[in-house]
Amino acid sequence: MKTFIYLILFLLSCTVIHAQSFTMNQGGATVKNYYVELPYAVINGKIIVSVEIAGEKHRFIFDTGAPVIVSKELAAQIKAEVINNNRLRDANGGYDSVSVVRLNGIMLGNVNFNAIPAIGTLPELYKCWNVDGVIGSNIFRNSIVSIQSDKHLIIITDQANKLTLNKKHSVPLITNENNDTQSDPVIKVMLGKKVSLTLEFDTGDAGFLRFSNDYMNQLSKYAVYEVIDKGYGASQFGGHGLQDNSDKYLLKIPSLTIGEGYFNNVITETNKGGSAAIGCRLLDYGNVTLDFINSRFYFDARNETNDLYEKHWPIRPTVIGNKLVVGVVWTKALNQVKPGEQIMAVNEKAFPEVNLCDMINRQPIIAGTDSATVTIKDAEEKERLIDIVKE
Questions:
Q1: Helices (H), the chain
Q2: Where are the domains of the chain?
Q3: Three-state SS for 175?
Q4: Are 189 and 261 spatial neighbours (Cβ–Cβ below 8 Å)?
Q5: Domains 5-157 and 164-307 equal at CATH topology level
Q6: Contacts by 367-370, CB closer than 8 A, 24 or more apart
Q7: For position 18, what pLDDT does the model report?
């Protein structure tokens, strides 16, 4: 991984679990032949856009792996009508019961969207980005959405001729066949030359590739990955909090293809439960267009081939309460440290207490180095120093 604090990962996407005959796929734009350009900012891997609701502007996360979500405070302020109750699953596989409200007057640029179902509860973690909600895939199901990462611009239209699209750079786009309630986009990628894999495209995930233990086991006979390390613990946050401790595997995928974009030496960590996906780090390598109308996914790569190999640290930190702790321990550190032990300092920089939001939004603890000295406090309050190396 590039930096020590980057080892705290955040998977914010959520999936509505089908209940009876209710669907999040309702409402839409109030006009036809629309075209709008929506500027965005990227803050620690999250795409932030400005959304106007009931005449006031709000900051929202743009997340193709989730439905529209609003905070309880905003839902109450605009007197949003509760229309259903449902279950919500985050990217780690956690569940919660939530209410669904109907939103009117969602302005994306100059285009008005009415009668859009939205989850009426914003997980506490989202407040770290100072947002009031999420703009998710159910609002875009009748649109073409082009994410121009080179310009930090999202184009939303129902007119394909307004965009420059090269079908050679595309693959079929489908909405998740296991969940027809929110239109999250699913694409096919190639591992090696013969194995086709169906993955969600999830801009709520700050990484490049999210993988599960189940996917790893299913693909074991095809020789499309190499296990380069094994670990145990928890470091990833979803909408419902920190995942449970589990076995983890660090994989190297020699070849992954998306359309005409080729990626070599993709490094990914498996996650017990949850879902697999391509995350928004894909946008570091090109522009993406999701044509929900014509069921095509376009990836216009800046370079035909990209090498994604990264070194990794032997421990992965996370935050529990107000403490920086060891989240995952990999093979090289098994005799040095245990999951859950507190990290008191890194290279003499003290961390007696931490705030999760501060850790998300601060500069990296370590950058530009491949080694560090970490002060560890064990369960008996004894401190010791360990030296770690990124390999």
A1: 72-77, 213-218, 356-361
A2: 5-157, 164-307, 315-389
A3: strand
A4: no
A5: yes
A6: 367/2, 367/3, 370/311
A7: 45
When the candidates are 4.10.375.10, 2.40.70.10, 3.30.1360.120, 3.90.78.10, the CATH number that belongs to 164-307 is 2.40.70.10
Higher pLDDT among residues 86 and 90, named by residue? 86
CATH topology of domain 5-157: Cathepsin D, subunit A; domain 1 (2.40.70)
Give per-residue pLDDT as tens, 234-288. 765 554 455 567 789 999 999 999 999 999 999 999 988 778 999 999 999 999 9
Strand ranges (DSSP E) for 213-282? Answer: 226-233, 236-238, 241-242, 246-258, 261-271, 277-279
d(CA 295, CA 299): 14
Mean pLDDT along residues 186-194: 94
Residue 92 CB coordination number (10 Å): 23
CATH of 315-389, picked from 2.30.42, 1.20.5, 3.10.180, 1.10.1420, is 2.30.42
Q: For residue 50, what are the contacts with CB-CB under 8 A and spacing of at least 6?
A: 38, 39, 57, 58, 59, 60
Mean pLDDT over each residue of the chain, to the nearest integer:
88
pLDDT tens track for 24-50? 999 999 999 999 999 999 988 899 999
| Averaged pLDDT, 305-326 | 92
- Percent of the chain at pLDDT > 90 equals 70
Half-sphere exposure of 359 (CA within 13 A, CB side): 24
Looking at residues 312-336, what average pLDDT do you find?
91
Name the percent of the chain in helix, strand, coil, to the closest 5: 15, 50, 35
CA dist 183 to 27, 177, 186, 190, Å?
Answer: 13, 9, 9, 22
Nearest to 323 by CA among 232, 205, 242: 242
Q: Which residue has the tokens 């008005």?
A: 112
